[in-house]
Amino acid sequence: MGEALIGARIQRKEDYRFLTGAGQYTDDVTLPGQTHAAFVRSPHAHAKIKSIDTAKAKAAKGVLAVYTGDDVAAAKLGGLPCGWLITDVNGQPMKEPPHPVLAQGKVRYVGDQVALVVAETQSQARDAAELVEVDYEALPAVVDAVKARAKGAPVLHDIAPDNTCYVWALGDKGAVDAAFAKAAHVTKLEFVNNRLIPNAIEPRAANGAYSRHDDSYTLYVANQNPHVERLLMTAFVMGLPEHKVRVVAGDVGGGFGSKIYLYAEDVAVTWAAKQINRPVKWTADRSESYVSDAHGRDHHTVAELAMDKDGKFLAMRVKTTANLGAYLSTFASCVPTILYATLLAGQYTTPLIHCEVTSVFTNTAPVDAYRGAGRPEATYVVERLVETAAREMKLDPAEIRRRNFIRTFPYQTPVALLYDIGNYDATLDAAVKLADVAGYAGRKAESARRGKLRGIGYAAYIEACGIAPSAVAGSLGARAGLFEAGEIRVHPTGSVTVFTGSHSHGQGHETTFAQVVADRLGMAIENVDIVHGDTSKILFGMGTYGSRSIAVGGTAIMKALDKIIAKGKKIAAHLMEAAETDVEYDRGVYTVKGTDKKKMFGEVAFAAYVPHNYPHDKLEPGLNENAFYDPSNFTFPAGTYVCEVEIDPDTGTTKVERFTAVDDFGKIINPMIVDGQVHGGLAQGIGQALTEGCQYDDASGQLVTGSFMDYCIPRADDLPSFQVDTRETPCTHNPLGVKGCGEAGAIGSPAALMNAITDALGVKDLPMPATPQTVWRALQNRKAA
Amino acid sequence: MAVRISMKVNGKPAQAEVEERTLLVTFLREALRLTGTHVGCDTAQCGACTVHLNGRAVKSCSMLAMQAEGGDILTIEGVAKADGTLHPMQAAFKEHHGLQCGFCTPGMVMNAIDFAKSNPHPSEQQIREALDGNLCRCTGYHNIVKAIAAGAKAMATAG
What ipTM did this prediction achieve? Predict the structure, then answer.
């Protein structure tokens, strides 16, 4: 019998190749006859295209082809589709303006793709792209979502004359308003959840190839969900049969949401590959990533919390304007609605909640899911309100949370979700202890002696992961299922290859999933390989986002394992001449109850493939099973974060002195990997709160923060070492009891940090990112007041 | 115009004819197919392209291939022993989970090895400051810092 592997800190199987330069990212793939692509992008935020002259570019050295919007229109390539239909408050479908692969007569943001140049080398393609002459007629632009709704604002799309995609609402407004009228205290905040640029360190890349041999296409692409990419590309854009397209997303250098989507470049290189009958590769440079990757967040929100005299929450009222950018990206519409408003109950018994969301087109890059996607925005609303309410009511921030925690499960929130399980006191209590809140007063006094300002802030977040029960998602507008697929292929000599529809782009599935399989089959982890990311190998899977991999993909693997073990039991019963009902199984060993008879899993596997002594009348040979799993509910990871900052009042510099995270992810397969996921999430959340803020120039619509020099993702010396721990309430509706851990850090940390900074400064609110300039100004304003 | 360049890469001679404007990283990736050295930005900020030139860490996106003429280049592919045994710094990254997606990792390891040579017993703050030119979006640096501390110690012990 093998050792228990579930719950063990096992070093990662994938590390060796990454540490020795043997990873195989999309740009590392060079195909025979490889050509290179460069895109001509709009320098204007909004303009009419009067004409495009490609003659000089076509004549340039090494150039093989130049394509414009006219070419893709002639080829009848469709627009990029949106995967989620939101129905507005009047029962009308959202406005879905066309999102062309190459611009059709008009450009709508800086970076909008106008033409594609294909050449022998990357340098030649880029040089020639400079020679494409586009005659633009610049139009007024609008980059702010609230301003885009104003009368007289420039109009992006004819079908949305008020630039509004939809106005959507959730909750009983009348009941909420009535509760507010009777409240003893109302806390109100108005803030912006700052726009972010994901910045996976591997830039997006796509390499399309066409084979005349069997009229098929292969697309190598940096993507989080190759089957979704293929489905959208074939069925909605190119009109190709799915089986003629293979999508390969091999090693992917981080995604954080930004590589979920079908992008125009992916379609363009695939289409162009057939036109020139050679593979076409495009790799973004960082500047191109900044302007053309889908961005995240960008909400303007007014939020109110009504309480009784004891700080018990009575109702919440939230009104948000969300910036969707110039076009609808793949999942743009569901992020500020389904993934946002449904999380506004947080960990609390707030009985009445109403949320209205207005989503708006602007002359900016498309906005879509970025690590957390809607849930960080919801947590920011709830936890900034709760902390502010505690201050206004002179309650301890932990105490006000305890007074409102949900403690009975399952719990139906007023915003559609059914929490299956949780223990919010456990994570809060553990966080208070680990953060040494008891010692805070002493540390604050010590800071004060040095002339520094110290503050502490909490955030108790919840998220809905394990996306999603397909029927529920469908009823809410999803245009796809959200199950996952897994296949276990047992080889005759007993080693195993597992095929999963989940996709790893840093999460370590090759280790975590192998732990699950090796544990149940009682074998060494080295004998289990995980295959993902290739539509020609894996079953139709939905990929990785929304912290869904272990909860949905892991469960699909567990279901397939059940089938393997059950079939093995029949084979073992035959080999041991016992009744199947008398055969028991534990970690790789079949035994017969009350006897010393046993058969190892490897022996059973061998018998399945060399079936000389085999129950042929009842069983097929072979040992290969698959399963599709559609979850019955979301999972609900939750936790409490405590942040302590020290601010230098002379410079406005904020130092994160202590950051404590206690999470409940249910059962944990590999604590080392889970800790790492939390660290990374915290860094991105701290980045949002302290250093990162995407800025477009209001007048010109130019992206001002277009490089690592202008848009500051955290560096090592911007961050502290983190204190992380977990508490465990196993998920009730999947066999591993797991909930997911990928996004928590990014969800809980911005509110904890801003609560700490506002505490240190003694101000009610401060915009993110709290740069030294913002903090210093707030201090000067406070002095002046 | 094309120029002929020649240098030593991972202990072996390497020659090629390249355009004058060819960056060192492009030469390594395209001409030599050493794709372990990555490009993550175009402003010399991310450090994914870090290699050693004559024993010192350099950003191979920020110099021309011809500037390395006659030099001795070490890339991530040449760091482990010939039998596949990881260098102590590579081993420390594995042991301390100092990598997730792996894209920044080669640059991190190359910079860390150079750093540890002159800082055998670095403090956490020294390590964090030494990573100023290497960006990671996955790990929050927490485990990279631990890995470099452990790797530096292992390198010092190994002499």
Answer: 0.98
